[in-house]
C-alpha cells in the first residue's frame, strides 16, 4: 500500500461520507441548499451578498472593502463576522458560480469535522472502527446538516474546528519527557484551531473554549505520571495556546470589539439570550428523528450512537464517564432558561452576547460521538466479555424502550409517524446487532461493518429529509422584473427601503441596489434609533431584522408610519411594500408582483451642503460626489457643512483640501464635515 494512499484514505473516506450527507446537492452542485420547511437562508440573505460585494470591490475598485453599503444604509464590513473577510476559505466562494463555492466549503468542513472527531477518538485510545464511528456521528449529525439548510456557514465551519482544538490540546498537555518542542507546537496548533473557529464564527468560539478548558482539566487529571517541572511546562504551553489563539483571532476580534458596544447586541436581555431554548419535550428528539425538522430544534444524533454510548458506560470504558458528563451538560445548557445553569453561564463575558442555547447540542453530539466510539471499541475487545450480562440486558432494555416509544408514538400521531416507526425499527436493529456482536462466532471486522452501516444508514436517512435545493437563477433572480424597473428609476447613490422585505437581499445585491432595511445580527444602535423615528418602529427589543416583523411574517403589515423627510436623509428614493402605504411625501409609482412601490418626494442625495450642523430643511447639492468602499469624495463650495448620507462609525477620517478635519456627527447618525469659504 503506497504511503500516499495511507495518508489520504481517511480524508477521502470522510469526503465521501460528506457527499452522502449532502446527497440532495449532487444533482445541482451550484444550487442553494435550503431547509425543506422554509424559504429563507443566511446563505442567501447574508453570505452570498457579502461574497458578491467582496468580489465586486476587488474587481471594480481594486479594494478589499472595509465598509458594506448594501444594507442598513451602510455598515462595517471588516468587523462583521458574516462578511467572511477574515476566514480565508470563504474567499473561494466569490469566484465560483452560484452557490458552488459555498457548497464546496460545506463539503470540506463536514469532512474536516468527521476527520477531527475520528482523530480525537483515536488519540483517546479507541481503535480505527470506533474512531470511524465517532467521525461519522459528528460529521453526519442532522443538526449540522440542518444548519446547512439554514445557511449557517460560519457555524458549520467553526464547529468543524472544535475536535481539532481538543486533539492538539491533548497532545500539548499530556506529560512527556521527550521532544518538548513538539508539545509547544501542539499548543500553538490548538490555539490556531481555536482562532480559526473564532474567525469562522465568533459565537461558537465561546462554547469551544469552554469545552477546551474542561477537556484540558480532564487530560491533566488523567496523567499517570508527571515529570519534574511538569506544572511549569503546562503553564507555558497554555500561554502559547492562548497567544496563538489571540494572534489568529485578532484580525476579526479587534474590529469586532470596537463595534459590538455600538450595536443593539450589546444590550441583550436575559430573554434575548435564552431565545430558541430547547424545550424539555424536544429532548424526545434524541430518540425520535424529526424528519424535515428545523435545525435549531434537532436533537437526534442516531439511535445507533446512543446504543454504543450505553455500551461504553456499561463496560466502564476509559473516559466514558467524562464524555457522558459533557453530553449531559450540553443537553442541560441547550434547555436555556428552563434550567438555572444557562442563566448563570450567560452572565459571563462573551457568553452574555450569545443567543440560541439549543446550539450547545453540537457539543453534546461531539461528546456522544466519542462515547459511541468508545462503545464500539469495547464491544470488539475483551472488555465486553467481562460485562456480557449487563450489555445484553442493556441492549434488550434500550431496544424495548425504542420499540414501545415508536409504536406508541406512531399510534398517537397517525399519518406523520415515520420518525416514530424509524425509532422502533432502528431500536430493534441496534439491539439485535448489539446482542449478536457479543458473540465471538463472527469476526470483529464483520460486526464493525454492521455497526458502521447502521450508523451511516440512519444518519443518511434523516439527513436526506432536511434539505432541498433551489437553483441559482431562481434564488438570485427573485423579484427580477420589479427590481429591474426600480433600478431604471434610481439615480446613482439612491437607496430603497422596504418595511416588508419585498426586495430579497441577495437579489438586491445581484442588481446593485442598496437598501436602507436589512437583516444582520449586528446593527448599529444609532441607525436603529434613527430608523425607528423614520418609519415608526416600536422598541420591542433586540431583532436581527430592520424592520422587525412582530408576526414573524414580513408580508403582514406592522403599522409602518413613514416620515418621508427623515427617510430621505438616508437617500431613500423608493419604498416597496407588500401592502399599501399612506404617508405624506410618498407618491405611488406602481404595483408590480404584488408589491406597492412609492417614490419619496423628499429624498436627498448622498452628499449635500447646508449652513449649520443642525439638520436643515434648506440644502443644496454638492458639485460632485464619488464613492468607493473605503473612500468617499465630495466637491463643494463653502462655507457650510457637507453632510454625507452615510452612517457614522469610528475609524472614518475626514480631510478638506488634503488637510485633516474633524468628522462631525449630524442628527446623531450621519457624517458631516465643515468647510470654509472657498473650500
What Rg is obtained from the alpha carbons, in whole angstroms?
28 Å
Question: What strand order characterises the main sheet?
Answer: 6-5-9-11-10
Question: Percentage of helical residues?
Answer: 40-55%
User: How many distinct folded domains?
Assistant: 3
Binned strand content? 5-15%
Q: Please identify the structural class as seen in this structure.
A: alpha+beta
- End-to-end separation in angstroms reads 76 Å
Q: So what's the overall shape? A: globular
Observed structural traits:
679 residues; 3 domains; five-stranded antiparallel beta sheet; 20 strands; 49% helix; globular
Please, could you describe this protein's structure?
- The protein has 679 residues and is an alpha+beta fold.
- The chain folds into three domains: 3-151 and 263-467, no CATH class; 477-600; 607-675, no CATH class.
- The chain contains 22 helices and 20 strands.
- A five-stranded mixed beta sheet has the order 6-5-9-11-10. It has a five-stranded antiparallel beta sheet with strand order 13-12-16-20-19, with no helix packed on it.
- A hairpin with a 2-residue loop joins strand 14 (624-628) and strand 15 (631-635).
- It starts with a helix and ends with a strand.
Short characterization:
The protein is an alpha+beta fold.
Topology:
Elements (H helix, E strand, L loop, with lengths): L2 H19 L10 E4 L6 H20 L5 E2 L6 E2 L23 H24 L4 H12 L2 H8 L3 H21 L6 H21 L1 H20 L8 H30 L10 H4 L29 H12 L5 H15 L5 H6 L15 H20 L7 H26 L4 H20 L6 H20 L3 E4 L1 H5 L3 H10 L5 E3 L7 H7 L2 E2 L2 E2 L5 H11 L9 E2 L17 H5 L3 E6 L8 E7 L2 E6 L6 E4 L9 E2 L2 E5 L2 E5 L4 E8 L6 E3 L2 E3 L2 E3 L3 E6 L4
Parallel strand pairs: 5-6, 5-9
Antiparallel strand pairs: 1-4, 2-3, 7-8, 9-11, 10-11, 12-13, 12-16, 14-15, 16-20, 17-18, 19-20
Amino acid at each position: 500500500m503506497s504511503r500516499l494512499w495511507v495518508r489520504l484514505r481517511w480524508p477521502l473516506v470522510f469526503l465521501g461520507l460528506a457527499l452522502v450527507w449532502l446527497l440532495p446537492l449532487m444533482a445541482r452542485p451550484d444550487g442553494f441548499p435550503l431547509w425543506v420547511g422554509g424559504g429563507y437562508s443566511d446563505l442567501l440573505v447574508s453570505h452570498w451578498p457579502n461574497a458578491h460585494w467582496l468580489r465586486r470591490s476587488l474587481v471594480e475598485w481594486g479594494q478589499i472593502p472595509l465598509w458594506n453599503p448594501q444594507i442598513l444604509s451602510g455598515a462595517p464590513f471588516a468587523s462583521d463576522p458574516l462578511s467572511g473577510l477574515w476566514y480565508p476559505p470563504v474567499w473561494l466562494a466569490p469566484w465560483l458560480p452560484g452557490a458552488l463555492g459555498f457548497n464546496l466549503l460545506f463539503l470540506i468542513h463536514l469532512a474536516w469535522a468527521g476527520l477531527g472527531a475520528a482523530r480525537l477518538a483515536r488519540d483517546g485510545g479507541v481503535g480505527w472502527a470506533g474512531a470511524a464511528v465517532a467521525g461519522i456521528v459528528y460529521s453526519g449529525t442532522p443538526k449540522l446538516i440542518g444548519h446547512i439548510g439554514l445557511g449557517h456557514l460560519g457555524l458549520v465551519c467553526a464547529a468543524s474546528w472544535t475536535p481539532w482544538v481538543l486533539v492538539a490540546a491533548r497532545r500539548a498537555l499530556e506529560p512527556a519527557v521527550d521532544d518538548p518542542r513538539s508539545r509547544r507546537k501542539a499548543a500553538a496548533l490548538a490555539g490556531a484551531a481555536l482562532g480559526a473557529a473564532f474567525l469562522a464564527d465568533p459565537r461558537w468560539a465561546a462554547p469551544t473554549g469552554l469545552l477546551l478548558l474542561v477537556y484540558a482539566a480532564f487530560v491533566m487529571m488523567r496523567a499517570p505520571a508527571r515529570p519534574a517541572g511538569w506544572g511549569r511546562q503546562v503553564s507555558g504551553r497554555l500561554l502559547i495556546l492562548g497567544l496563538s489563539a489571540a494572534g489568529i483571532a485578532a484580525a476579526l476580534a479587534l474590529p469586532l470589539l470596537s463595534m459590538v458596544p455600538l450595536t443593539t447586541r450589546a444590550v441583550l436581555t436575559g430573554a434575548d439570550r435564552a431565545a430558541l431554548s430547547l424545550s424539555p419535550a424536544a429532548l424526545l428528539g434524541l430518540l425520535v428523528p424529526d424528519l424535515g425538522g428545523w435545525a435549531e430544534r434537532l436533537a437526534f444524533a442516531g439511535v445507533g450512537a446512543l446504543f454504543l454510548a450505553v455500551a461504553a458506560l456499561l463496560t466502564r470504558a476509559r473516559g466514558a464517564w467524562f464524555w457522558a458528563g459533557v453530553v449531559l451538560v450540553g443537553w442541560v445548557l441547550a434547555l436555556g432558561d428552563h434550567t438555572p445553569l444557562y442563566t448563570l453561564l450567560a452572565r459571563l463575558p462573551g457568553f452574555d452576547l450569545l443567543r440560541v442555547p439549543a446550539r450547545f447540542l453540537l457539543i453534546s453530539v461531539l461528546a456522544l460521538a466519542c462515547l459511541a466510539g468508545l462503545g464500539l471499541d469495547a464491544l470488539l475487545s475483551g472488555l465486553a466479555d467481562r460485562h456480557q450480562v449487563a450489555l445484553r440486558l442493556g441492549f434488550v432494555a434500550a431496544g424495548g424502550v425504542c420499540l414501545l416509544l415508536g409504536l406508541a408514538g406512531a399510534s398517537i400521531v397517525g399519518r406523520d409517524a415515520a420518525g416514530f416507526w424509524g425509532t422502533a425499527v432502528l431500536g430493534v436493529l441496534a439491539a439485535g446487532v448489539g446482542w449478536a456482536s457479543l458473540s465471538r462466532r463472527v469476526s470483529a471486522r464483520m460486526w464493525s461493518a454492521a455497526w458502521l452501516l447502521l450508523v451511516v444508514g440512519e444518519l443518511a436517512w434523516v439527513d436526506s429529509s432536511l434539505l432541498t435545493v433551489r437553483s441559482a437563477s431562481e434564488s438570485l433572480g427573485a423579484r427580477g422584473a420589479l427590481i429591474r424597473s426600480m433600478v431604471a428609476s434610481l439615480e446613482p447613490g439612491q437607496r430603497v427601503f422596504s418595511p416588508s422585505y419585498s426586495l430579497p437581499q441577495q437579489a438586491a445585491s445581484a442588481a446593485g441596489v442598496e437598501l436602507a432595511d436589512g437583516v444582520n445580527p449586528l446593527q448599529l444602535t444609532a441607525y436603529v434609533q434613527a430608523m425607528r423615528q423614520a418609519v415608526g418602529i416600536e422598541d420591542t427589543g433586540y431583532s436581527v431584522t430592520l424592520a422587525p416583523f412582530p408576526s414573524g411574517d414580513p408580508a403582514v403589515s406592522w403599522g409602518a408610519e413613514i416620515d418621508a423627510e427623515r427617510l430621505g436623509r438616508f437617500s431613500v428614493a423608493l419604498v416597496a411594500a407588500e401592502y399599501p402605504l399612506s404617508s405624506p411625501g410618498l407618491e405611488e409609482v406602481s404595483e408590480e408582483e404584488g408589491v406597492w412601490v412609492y417614490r419619496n418626494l423628499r429624498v436627498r442625495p448622498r452628499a449635500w451642503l447646508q449652513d449649520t450642523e443642525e439638520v436643515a430643511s434648506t440644502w443644496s447639492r454638492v458639485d460632485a460626489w464619488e464613492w468607493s468602499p473605503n473612500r468617499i469624495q465630495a466637491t463643494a463650495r463653502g462655507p457650510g457643512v457637507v453632510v454625507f448620507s452615510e452612517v457614522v462609525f469610528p475609524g472614518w477620517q475626514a480631510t478638506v483640501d488634503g488637510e485633516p478635519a474633524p468628522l462631525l456627527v449630524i442628527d446623531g447618525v450621519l457624517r458631516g464635515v465643515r468647510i470654509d469659504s472657498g473650500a
